[in-house]
Amino acid sequence: HGKSTLVGRLLADTDSLPTGKLDFIQKICDQQGKDFEFAFLLDALEEEQKQGITIDTSQIFFNTRKRPYVIIDAPGHKEFLKNMVTGAAYAEAALLLIDASEGVQEQSRRHGYILRLLGLTQVAVVINKMDLVGYDAEVYYKIKSEYEAFLASIDVQAIEFIPVSAKLGTNIAKTTGDMPWYKGPTVLEMLDRFHDAVPQTHQPFRLPVQDVYKFDERRIIAGRVEAGRAKVGDEIIFSPSNKRGVIQSIEGWSVPATAQTIEASQSVGICLEDQIFVERGEIASLVSQMPIVTTTFDANVFWMGKRHLKQGVNYLLKLGTQNVECEVVDFKKAIDASTLETLPDQDYIAKNDVAELTFRTRQPIAFDLFTDIAETGRFVLVDEYDVCGGGIITSFTPLSEVDRLANEVRERDSHWVQGLVTPEMRAYRNGHIAAMILLTGKAGVGKAPLAGKLEESLFNQNYKSYLLDGRNIQWGLSADMDQETYFSGGEALRRFGEVAKLFMDAGHVLISTSNIFNQDDHSNITLLVQPSPVIEVQITDDTFPKGKPEVVLTVAEAADHDKAIQKIIDYLKEQKILIGQNYSI
Question: What are the structural domains, with CATH classification, of the chain?
Fold first, then answer.
């Protein structure tokens, strides 16, 4: 369609080529006995010149009187769509070419939909090779009408339709008398009408962690700043772990560390005032501008794999430096990219087709919506070591009750003030790590008596044990609430869990019973007291216990307190919860 020809002509007509470049290419063409093409100024690969097509994506820099530009010359041929998507993903605006002699083709529609998938809203359509149709206005208006209607059907609006002849230079950098019926801008004028994107430095700070390097006493957290800026002294938080720290210094390689700020597009290393364990894949942000953290989100996806993208199959999702397993849980809409027909009741995507999908990841992932921060809102999908697709995140699923609680815990942990005594120091002195032992079972099976005896036994062995009875919270901390309000909406569970969390932070072995909680609440309690373990001891005569308790006691076994307690203690030692005094962790 003449994309490289258009860009080559644009560079030539604006005197943006290196000195002697035009003459050099002309000389090579003369030596090889072939006609000069402006595309040869860009198609550097020998294979591209032989076939007359663009294979790889290239970047071309040039300036107008208004501003500098980077033109991404991306291939349009079906076989090289991966390269095109790669190029388009980094663009702020798009020029989409249609061959006037061919009209709107399958490829034209596919390219338009890719731009829509990638969220590009600044689009101008260039109808090239008008010289081949005699600069016929009827041909121009027919293509404009057809493609304008198509773009409207996918919620894309072209700013302008520009008729040109890239080969002859018509309407590229200047107008000619060949199309007096066209009163719109030239391609060069159109470029200057595009709006600048919001500068990346004005966006919220995002630093995906690439690696952590240990130098002398320093732990240097390295990565590329994708958006925003930060400075020495700023408090940052790492998502999804919610670990926090204050930037102590900005490190350089082979140069003194004198920088006080970091900003978008810089590859940097930072040291924190307090050393914390941070892993590759986490995203650092300012505490007041955290990214989204969830496991479920919606995305527009373009698939290029040889095998179909299928629902229920595990794929590797790569977003920034994060690598997590994911699966498609819902096909909102599968679309044939060439015809734009919706494919009903389809649970797969074929090569070169697109879809609007809901994904679920195996573990929480940090991201932003693509419309907010593009760099942390797009991802690629890997199937058996091959990059087979890409997508942009458009929304995330509203939080469920469990997710809501997880979000509250995440927010709580992000503001948690840690004293100078670490969990490891407490465990070393106490002879055990912090843990919760939750006795469950029907009313009347002996939970309360066993809980009291277990607390006493652990205490007599010099362990920091405490019996937390829910009634003490009900009539103490929650005395301001009426009973109906207390037991509805999960408030009883939340308050119980928050009190338990304080005991966990103090390093205790906490013992409690659960008459007021059901089986579904146990996972929420685990969430509230994380990372401390919750050990469920279930007392039941049922053949199949409910859930997955760590220890099961029959009613008769629970009545024999000594044997029951020994069974519980044996499990705690086996799991290295009880580790003995002065044990090195």
Answer: 3-193 (3.40.50.300), 200-289 (2.40.30.10), 292-397 (2.40.30.10), 423-574 (3.40.50.300)
| Strand 229-231 with 235-239, pairing | unpaired
Spatial neighbors of 19 by CB under 8 A, at least 6 apart, are none
DSSP 375: G
CA distance 367 to 454: 45
CB proximity list for 128: less than 8 A, separation 6 or greater: 1, 2, 5, 6, 97, 98, 99, 100, 164, 165, 166
Cβ neighbours of 531 (radius 10 Å): 10
pLDDT tens for 282-317 read 999 999 999 999 889 999 998 888 899 998 899 999
What gap in Å lies between CA 290 and CA 496, rounded to an integer?
Answer: 28
**DSSP secondary structure string, 256-288?**
-----EEETT-EEEEEESS-----TT-EEEEGG
CA distances from 93 to 159, 201, 413, 532 (A): 11, 19, 41, 50
- Reported in sequence order, the residue ranges of 336-452 that DSSP labels E, i.e. its strands, are 348-349, 354-367, 378-383, 386-396, 435-440
Give the separation between CA 171 and CA 185, rounded to whole angstroms: 8
pLDDT attached to residue 351:
84
Single-letter amino acid code for the residue at 499: V
Task: Retrieve residue 491's tokens.
Answer: 């408030």
Helices (H), 358-478: 401-414, 423-430, 447-460, 470-474
What distance in Å separates the CA atoms of residue 518 and residue 156, rounded to the nearest whole number?
Answer: 51
Kindly state the tokens that stand for 324.
């997590």
Nearby residues of 76 by Cβ (< 8 Å), 6 or more positions away: 1, 3, 54, 84, 97, 107, 111
433 three-class SS = coil
Position 151 pLDDT exceeds 50: yes
pLDDT band at 485 (very low <50, low <70, confident <90, very high): low
| Residue of 379, 380, 429, 434 lying closest to 583 (CA atoms) | 429
Q: What is the pLDDT of residue 117?
A: 74
In order of 402, 488, 516, the CA distances from 494 in angstroms are 12, 11, 12
Amino acid 73 reads D
> Using the 8-state DSSP alphabet, how is residue 308 labeled?
P
What is the torsion angle, in degrees rounded to the nearest 10, for the CA atoms of residue 187, residue 188, residue 189 and residue 192? 120
Length of the chain: 585
The mean of the pLDDT values for the chain is: 84
User: What are the pLDDT digits (tens) for 446-471?
Assistant: 999 999 999 999 999 999 999 998 78
Which token pair is 367? 């991201």
What pLDDT does 560 receive?
A: 94
- Residues 432 and 458: their CA atoms lie apart, in Å, by 11
How far apart (Å, rounded) are the C-alpha atoms in residues 336 and 354? 7
CA 514 to chain centre: 38
Token code pair at residue 474: 């009900």
